[in-house]
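AraC family transcriptional regulator, Streptomyces swartbergensis. Tokens?
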Amino acid sequence: MEAPRRDTRGIVDPSGLLNRVRFRRHEPAEPLRRYVEWYWLIDWDLPAPYASHIVPHPAVNLTFQWDGADEKDAPYGEVTGVALGLYTRKLSGRGRVCGAKFRPGGFRPYAPEVPVSRWTGRTLPVQEVFPQVTGDTVRSVVTPADDRARVAALDAFLLSLPCAPDPQADLAIDLVRRIQADRTVRRVGDFAHARGLSVRALQRLFSTHVGVSPKWVILRYRIHEALEQAGTRSDVDWAALAADLGYADQAHLVWDFTTTVGVPPAAYAAGARVGR
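Tokens:
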């Protein structure tokens, strides 16, 4: 499996976030990498509140959090399914998050009783999904001062969970990776046919193992690419990018971007240039 990416794909105003928090990614233990993409750790100590915004990936996240990072503040854990819209998290004071991002399609082996779509658009206390989690479990992850100990605690917890190999999860992971990497994937029917699946079978696989439809995944990765271009380039040809991403025209890209991110792409790009 590939090492954790170092880009900021999906983060709205990454410079604003990274100037306020310490953000790191780490690889999980080798046996976990089949289904866990990476760990992400954030610490902050802010003089003023800040709202971070993320255009989410089609992935489930397990997080252990400590708001306040003080002995009197009880840490807690959550399972967050795929967020359908812009995900906003308000940060204030001091705090810490230690998260595990599962590969799109990789959460189902850890909770095989229900389809991953059950968690879509929802954030639940971790004990509702993994009843074996205790307060000591959460504290073992978030209280260590150094990254190595936090990563070791995440490894220990995830390795303790039952996780039977799931060929359907492997298939879902591969299909999502192909959609992400190949801009020519634009129509669900064509993609299903190329992979030797019916549209119905592909949709059912994505519902049970990814949590969202294949069409949603295709559209989401388009927005991730547009967001990345808008945030890193000053010479974006929006009409050309719209065509490259498979939109019918520039207006459709602008509408999709604005609906998801909250501002038109040109306005976002202008703001990003000011922030550099």
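The chain has two domains: 14-160, 167-275.
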